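pasting input
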Amino acid sequence: MGQMMELRAAWGDTLLELTKTHPNIMILDGDVGSSTMAQTVAYNNPDFYMNMGIAEQNMMGVAAGMASVGLIPWLSSFACFLANRDLDQLRVTVAQPKLSVKLAGHYSGILAGKTGKTHIDVGDMAIMRALPNMVVVAPADGIECRLATRVLTDTPGPAYLRLTRDASPVIFGEDYTFVLGKVVPLREGKDITIFGTGVQTVRALEAADLLAKEGISAHVVHVPTLKPIDVEGVVAAARKTGTVLTTEEHNIIGGLGGAIAEVLGQHCPLPMKLHGLRDCYLESGPNDALLEKYKLLPKDVVDAAWELLKTGPAAARKPEAKPKPAVKAKKAPQAPVKTSAKKKHAPPKKSAPRKRTGR
Amino acid sequence: MPIDAAEKRKLQEKAVQVRRLVLQAVHKAAGGHVGGPLSMVEIALALYFKMMRVDPKNPQWPDRDRYILSKGHSCIALYAVLALRGFFPVEEVYTFDAINSRMQGHPDMTKTPGIDMASGSLGTGASPALGMALGARRLGKDFHTWLHLGDGEIQEGQVWEMAWVASYYNVDNLTAIVDYNHVQQFGFPRDANLKRRFNPITQVPEKWRAFGWNVLECDGHDFDQLIPAMEQAKATKGKPTCIVAHTIKGKGISFMENDFNWHAKVPNKEELEKSMAELDAALATI
């Protein structure tokens, strides 16, 4: 197995490094530092850490006040609380006055450690995207998380960083450069463009492997910055194949799918499908079981791709005998995603010659 | 200790001037609040003309004292005070609520010189004040932060989240002033008369004391009491101070005082003229 990394650990380690170069940085914690790894700063450089207790509304406002006098506060809390509990404080005292408050929304998506519906937020990206002035970033792995934490610290204005709890595969190399507001093509393809965000991008890459075995060449593009969205990059990637699938560990309403649909609907309407959580609340359960039940696994991305392709020219290449859903996992995998761990962000491989069976 | 008589007289004259501006601006805008702005006049004047270190020519001066009007709907009174203090021309106050005006319906720190924090959603100004105070400590700066709360908005939970955190961290460069006028937008009846309605919150000083704050009480319209209380608050070390300032909603206009109906009612021409006459009479007695 390739390298695995926790985004929360990458975030905590990076903040500790930043306390040594950024005297104005401050970590405010909603009493979850042992979960979010804000504890890394609390233990190692306590002057830069303050526990604000179990009082998120106050924490958001304190951050606004600190930012207004020249500090750069990072908030440590869960995505479900930051996007909901203190939303009015965020809207009025942070987003409207464009103050440099940085929100780390931990435990996002469905892998929230068996916490159930209250802690699994399916709408944080939608809520954050809907706030004028907010920047919204969902890194795919620990490397990108490290870089995004630095870039957002140095970018004036409010920002939301969407983070996950458990270790996930590293897909980027140490030489990767994170550019705020730009999409990242990860794999060249000709038949379908798959946009992913956050750790779901890793599953999109795996899905592309599976699709390749079925004769479909998928163009995979990672969208780390949900807002401001890279209009040019999205349109260019969509035009490459003329068929677009989005996949996300989030409600398909208002998240990545919504963001891409807003761009393509206005700039280049194309056949597209949104894959992700279908407007529902979730429940407790082990990660693998949740991914399976709510159809977020690579095989589910493959199914969504075929549903989209079945009406287009690529349908002719669909393996005849194969029933849908295409790939039934024999048992739940041990880790959410593992086979793509070896994929570093390298120049995309030339796709293997593929048999064309007519149009 | 009472303040200098000449200084007090000047402040009292300014209070009349601010009340005039408030009523004229709201009348012209045909919108806005009057009861709350009239109750906060002396508090804001005492701060901007006596207590606070500010530079109207440099409103973003990093070392200035900070003021947050958390009861943001009363901002027309603050605009009048800031104009008199020289942050912008007095005539600009009359553009209140007009399109493209810097005099917004609720305070906008990105538009109006002298506004230190956005507010308007009640309770949300409380925590930024604590953030400024903690920020001053972190940055080694000696500015003081003044938080102006309405007694209505202390029904919001956020205020009490701020209160315990401020006292936990022994913040003493922050003073909260509760503009305790006992009346809010609609309120609750206290007796059989359903048309006389009041704030339901009781034991206000006790509540702040229970949250670990030093508490002072004074008449919020009497400069002789307000200014010494503010000085004492600033001098208190080791804990935050809350000044419970007893005020009258609609203060200065006989038919507006203590009446919840004047929370956000626009005076018509006749009511405006009557108000101006009452204010002229008040000025003559100073």
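fyi The beta strands of chain B are 66-69, 145-150, 174-180, 188-189, 197-198, 214-219, 241-246.
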